[in-house]
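Please check the following for our workbook:

***
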Amino acid sequence: MAGRSVLVTGMSGLIGRALREHVEGRYTLRALNRSAVEGVPCHRADIGDLEAIAPAFEGVDTVVHLAADATSPNPPWESILHNNVTGTYNVYEAARRAKVKRVVFASSGATVSGIEKDKPYSDLVAGRYDGLTSWPMVTHLSPVRPAALYGVSKVWGEALGRQFADTHGLSVICVRIGRVHAEDRPMSPRDFAVWCSQRDIVRLLERCVEAPEAIRYDIFFGTSRNKWGYRDLEHPSAVLGWEPVDVAEDHR
């Protein structure tokens, strides 16, 4: 395991920093970042520029692609296009050229969060729990339903990963990450349905990095084991052996 070379895009972000802390010393880590990342080899470039980022992928086994514009629920289209659409294509293409074995793509629960307009999900995310005892879980096989262009861009990243897996043999694992906060606790009523602790998400990303090579393509939801959650956690348990250890309700 110590010989595994892992490139993390966007390592200076919240999840990137948490992942580094969790796995440092067990992988040979590299960063692809616009700003400097101290303490690890860092290739500084904009993911919107394919030729500029390409050198970062040489000699890498696995890429964890976290870099994106996630500054708000609905960033400006120009930024989404540059970072999340073009940038994600560039990461897959650079990985293909460098013969990287796997890309772990940081997708988002925003790919399905449009369902929160409908009951019972609208009640779950508003904290209206009276009368709620069970509800249909949203799984990786459920239709996508993005609520904004950010979610649409993540659907694009998942679909593009499928195409690269089928056409080029790249192993692609998509993680639909829930709400992760710097405070590492739920911050709103909605979070009690979709929150993910930093500990849980970095353990899931680690399982994706180490998943069997036979996994050519898959999608997993990443939330903590929340009482009022609606996103399926059985699939990552069955395929990856990952079980979240944190629960939003513990923070009430």
Summary: The two ends are 39 Å apart (CA to CA). The chain has one domain: 5-251. The chain is about 35% helix and 15% strand. The mean pLDDT is 96.
